Amino acid sequence: VTAEARCKLVSWLIPVRRHFGLSLEALCLAVNILDRFLATTPVAADCFQLLGVTALLIACKQVEVHPPSVKELLALCCDAFTRQQLRNLECIVLHRLDFDLAAPTVSFFLEHFSQVRLDARGADAGEAADARSLAASVAELSLADYAFTKYAPSLLAASSLGLADRLLRHRSPLDLRVSGYPEEPLRDCMDQLQLLVSLNGRSLSLLLPSEVVQKCSWLGVD
């Protein structure tokens, strides 16, 4: 499976997540399951979409109260696959991963660092909320780019929040020292995220709440 094919699949899963109203955590976990399975098992191109919805279903069973049904997921694939095919692949994925489904995700660390920020003296709740929204959307975009798999989820989360504060010109940004990372890897990751944002401004604007988009004049969206 090529990086381009992976990008197309994850880019397709992003609107699927929003279609079902799923959490970012569910998507992050699905991508983690997808990548770990691909690292051990070759997958035919015509089964790649099936693997995507299977990984999403497994992730949703872990973190969502009301996961989408098999029927709903198959409908998004234009019924190109059967219920039995999905169930069979689900069993294969679970066995290949030894049922070890828990994983640190960028979503978890976004919540953690945002809470640390709010707990600090003199915290600006409005700035924290806007930074969290923008950082989450930037991190969501990064899931589709294989180049970002080299960054630990905690580093990616801290860098996304740091970039969000910078882009929104916040007066009380998150103290990135809470991440435990030196300045150099944070700067490197933030620079790569900045490039991602500059190349995908339109896509980013579609992921953001309207009230945050209005504060992002650099997106060039009316």
UniProtKB/TrEMBL annotation:
Pfam families listed in its UniProt record: Cyclin_C (PF02984), Cyclin_N (PF00134)
GO molecular function (one): cyclin-dependent protein serine/threonine kinase regulator activity
UniProt key word rRNA-binding: no
Gene3D superfamilies to which the protein is assigned, alphabetical: Cyclin-like
Coiled-coil segments: none
Ranges where the Cyclin C-terminal domain occurs: 104-217
Keyword Transport in record: no
Domain of life from the UniProt record: Eukaryota
InterPro entries with a match to the protein in the record: Cyclin (IPR039361), Cyclin-like_dom (IPR013763), Cyclin-like_sf (IPR036915), Cyclin_A/B-like (IPR046965), Cyclin_C-dom (IPR004367), Cyclin_N (IPR006671), Cyclins_cyclin-box (IPR048258)
Domain Cyclin-like as annotated: residue spans: 11-95, 114-195
Keyword annotations of the record: Cell cycle, Cell division, Cyclin
GO biological process, one term: cell division
Homology family: Belongs to the cyclin family. Cyclin AB subfamily.
Name of the protein in question: CCNO protein
Organism listed in the record: Oenanthe oenanthe
Source taxonomy: Eukaryota, Metazoa, Chordata, Craniata, Vertebrata
